[in-house]
Amino acid sequence: MIKLNQDVATREEAIRMAGQLLVDNGCAEPEYIDAMLARNEDVSTYMGNFIAIPHGTDEGKKYIKKTGISVVQIPMGVDFSDPDTDEEQLVTVVFGIAGLGNEHLQLLSQIALFCSDVSNVAKLADAQTPEEIINLLDKVGEN
């Protein structure tokens, strides 16, 4: 569930791409993508350090079939900032999350902790193969 070297124009397009990977791999129903977009409208899923972690609203949980994480690498970045602010929030790695029950909270915290070190984000953004990303993220569960 990894897309490398993507070129997206908007945060909505990035969220849709991450959500579609979850849908295509049986983690969620198509309606979950709308819940991911709605969540980002309520509260930005930008986490700092060039990452965003879009996930669905509480209402959208009913569309989750199994827990999964998608990764969309956007080397040129996409602006995740709120149109009402001047601050640019450039994102180079988008993690789409579908978590059964409360599993999304654990996934969110593990990814946020891993990505709190900007050098880890740089490695994800520079990865040339899905295997490189998988190997980097395997370390997330070990911490």
Automatic annotation (TrEMBL):
Domain of life of the organism encoding this protein: Bacteria
InterPro entries cross-referenced by the UniProt entry: PTrfase/Anion_transptr, PTS_EIIA_type-2_dom, Sugar_PTS
Kinase among keywords: yes
Keyword Phosphoprotein in record: yes
Molecular-function GO terms, alphabetical: kinase activity; protein-phosphocysteine-sugar phosphotransferase activity
Keywords, in A-Z order: Kinase, Phosphoprotein, Phosphotransferase system, Sugar transport, Transferase, Transport
Database matches in SUPFAM superfamilies: Phoshotransferase/anion transport protein (SSF55804)
Pfam families to which the protein is assigned, alphabetical: PTS_EIIA_2
GO biological process: phosphoenolpyruvate-dependent sugar phosphotransferase system
Domain PTS EIIA type-2: 1-140
A single cellular component GO annotation: plasma membrane
Protein task: The phosphoenolpyruvate-dependent sugar phosphotransferase system (sugar PTS), a major carbohydrate active transport system, catalyzes the phosphorylation of incoming sugar substrates concomitantly with their translocation across the cell membrane. The enzyme II CmtAB PTS system is involved in D-mannitol transport.
Protein name (Swiss-Prot/TrEMBL): Mannitol-specific phosphotransferase enzyme IIA component
Organism: Lactobacillus equicursoris DSM 19284 = JCM 14600 = CIP 110162
Lineage: Bacteria, Bacillati, Bacillota, Bacilli, Lactobacillales
